[in-house]
Amino acid sequence: MATNGNPIVTRLALIGIPLAVFVMGLKLLAWWVTGSVALLSDALESTVNVIAAVIAWGAIHYAARPADATHPFGHHKAEYFSAVIEGVLIVVAALLILQEAVPKLRAPTLLDQPVLGLAINLVAALLNAVWAAILIRVGRRHRSPALTADGHHILSDVVTSAGVLVGLLLALATGYAILDPVMAIFVALNIVFQGWKIISNSVSGLMDHAVDPAEEAAIKQAIAAHAEGSLGVHDLKTRRAGSATFIDFHLVVPAGMAVGDAHEICDRLEAAIESVQPGAQIAIHVEPETEKAHGIRVRVERAAP
């Protein structure tokens, strides 16, 4: 199946699956060695990471499919669905952690082989930290909601691991075994917060959110500087769908202007907008000066005679 997506994004999403499985294995090993409920909570979140990585790869692969008869604007929003599902899975992981941690408050136990277990968990956390930084950077650069959400999810896992390590070291230093389940509960609350952020950001994308103000200003500037020959632009609208940006507006021209001349202005405007929004899908509605203007106006700068 041919796709028109970014190969870097797709490749990273695919690599994330075996990496998530490997990290999960390390954390399960750390739990098995120590018997720590906090380390078990960390491992449970990594189980969700594996599922989320598979969903993210599937969504990115599907979103890369070209437009067709039933989806003429493409499949870009599939990535937002992936991010929403990932946010829900994060919340589910938090509930599983609470289920394990709360009963341990009544009968906490000290750890077995703590040094080995904490060392294994530290290695897993470092791997996740590096991978999260890569996913977030590439996801933002290529405007991939699924990849960015996966990176933030893994970053929350890193925070979880750091909290667990600190809590367990305190438990070992003080002899207070109850710090183990208490830390697991704090981990669960942090995970819920991270999940909520991912869900809210993704829902915003599903609602056709406009481009950032700075990007809109650059678009307006490009239009104003290259609309010579027209009488103005109005009803400018933008929306973001995954990695795709959609821009449309009305171009006012003199009533007697030839179609070819109006088309030349449109070509010039499309090239100018492409320079500030690479890959943007642009729709320009040409209308005569007798049409009543409405919406957002963009002033046209005229060259000095």
Question: Any descriptors?
Answer:
305 residues, mainly alpha, Alpha-lytic protease prodomain-like, Alpha-Beta Plaits, 2 domains, three-stranded mixed sheet, 8 helices
Kindly summarize this structure in a few lines.
With about 300 residues, the chain is mainly alpha-helical. It has helices spanning about 5-35, 35-65, 80-105, 115-140, 145-175, 180-205, 215-225, 260-275; strands at about 230-240, 245-255, 280-290.
Explain what this protein looks like in three dimensions.
The chain has 305 residues and is mainly alpha-helical. It folds into two domains: 7-206, Alpha-lytic protease prodomain-like, CATH 1.20.1510.10; 213-288, Cation efflux protein, cytoplasmic domain (Alpha-Beta Plaits, 2-Layer Sandwich). The chain contains eight helices and three strands. β2, α8 and β3 (281-288) form a beta-alpha-beta unit. Mean pLDDT is 78; it is low at 301-305. It comes from Mycoplana ramosa. The chain crosses the membrane at residues 12-34, 46-64, 80-98, 118-138, 158-176. It is a multi-pass membrane protein. This is Cation diffusion facilitator family transporter.
